[in-house]
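Notes from the 1:1 (GR / supervisor)

We went over the backlog. Supervisor wanted to see one worked example end to end before approving the batch request, so GR pasted a single chain during the call. The sequence is below; no edits were made to it. Supervisor asked that the structure be written out right there so they could see what the output format looks like.
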Amino acid sequence: MRIKTFELRDKHTFIALLAIDMNEPANAKQDWLMHRCGYPLDGRPNILLTRLDANGTATNDPYAWGNRTWSIAHHFILQHWDKLCDGAVIDVEFILGETKICKVSEQACSS
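Structure output shown during the call:
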């Protein structure tokens, strides 16, 4: 499994995310368990998304969130998984064209 962390940002929102590509088992035991759970392991990203603080829901279904922030972010992460670096800012307002400039990481602002 490949793991990345992101900053999920939206209007007045900051959430640290944990994203796991369930489609990349690291060994035969993970491969067997993934198949047993029904993961297709077809080469396309299958991203399990949750809060990094482990306080909340975890799902690999971008439609299950029930709100725009999580759903838009999840779709974006799926579409851009290979291009996204650890710690990237996922700015929903920017993705939707509501702002012209992507938010800067809070990490870059804290010294």
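Supervisor's comment: The chain is about 30% helix and 25% strand.
Batch request approved.
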